[in-house]
Design a protein that fits this description.
This protein has about 260 residues and is an alpha/beta fold. Helices cover about 45% and strands about 15% of the residues. It has one domain: Aldolase class I (TIM Barrel, Alpha-Beta Barrel). Helix 1 packs across helix 12.
């Protein structure tokens, strides 16, 4: 089964609810001519803007995701959001383990696993992020780091649940540093990720898994990146914050 291209915009801490509504209206108009049979598209606003995005994008070919999820269903976790809360809003996807969560907020492989379990329990589709830092890449530790992150994330996750997961490889060293990964470099790493997944769940399951690229994909390089055998789309940062650039990126990626 051919993997479907999946491109998701991670808006990070940008856009108020009012600004989200404006951007979603522009996206709705732009993306009306893109067939959902050729690509899955999602946007992931902040928690406070999810309702606005869902209201504006209802009935369109653009899905809505959240940027994080807590592992508990309820309780004394001030400032956190549960899977049930996200599901009630109409959220479909949730980003888990983003490099910024790992860097700034103490995310670990263990907490990624706990959030993944919670997302699956709530019926959400997880986008699990993995990636190495510049120091790790230059130290020749890329494969060891990625394998550790993958195995840590999927502890206790069975084969049936694994089928519901998207992987996003984000080389931390290529995000906002001026350094870039070539398509060949990105492809080599994606192929390695698929190999590790095959070791955990079998070759057929690994072959069906969507693996996004999250290293500064832009309209100018999306076509060449997605053309690689093991790159199935992108988790997009800055280019997703404007309707024109996000549309051009998606349109170029699918040819």
């Amino acid at each position: 089964m051919a993997r479907k291209v999946f491109i998701a915009g991670n808006w990070k801490m940008n856009k108020t609810a009012a600004e989200t509504a404006v951007l979603c209206r522009a996206l709705k108009e732009k993306f009306a001519d893109i067939c959902p049979c050729s690509v899955e598209v999602a946007v992931c606003p902040t928690f406070t803007s999810l309702s606005a995005a869902i209201a504006e994008l209802k009935g369109t070919n653009i899905k809505v995701g959240a940027q994080n999820i807590h592992w508990a269903d309820n309780g004394a976790f001030t400032g956190e959001i549960s899977g049930a809360m996200l599901k009630e809003l109409g959220v479909e996807y949730v980003i888990i383990g983003h490099s910024e969560r790992r860097q700034y907020f103490g995310e670990t492989d263990e907490t990624v696993n706990k959030r993944l379990v919670a997302a699956l329990r709530s019926g959400l589709k997880p986008i699990v992020c993995i990636g190495e830092t510049l120091e790790e890449r230059e130290g020749g530790k890329t494969e060891a780091v990625l394998e550790k992150q993958i195995k840590g994330a999927f502890v206790s996750i069975g084969a049936d649940d694994f089928k519901k997961v998207v992987i996003a490889y984000e080389p931390v060293w290529a995000i906002g540093t001026g350094k870039t990964a070539t398509p060949d470099m990105a492809q080599d790493t994606h192929a390695f990720i698929r190999k590790v997944l095959a070791g955990l769940y079998g070759a057929a399951a690994a072959e069906d898994t969507v693996i996004q690229y999250g290293g500064s994909m832009k309209p100018e390089n999306s076509k060449e990146l997605v053309a690689q055998k093991d790159i199935d789309g992108g988790l997009i940062g800055g280019a997703a914050l404007k309707a024109d650039s996000f549309y051009d990126l998606v349109k170029n990626a699918i040819g």
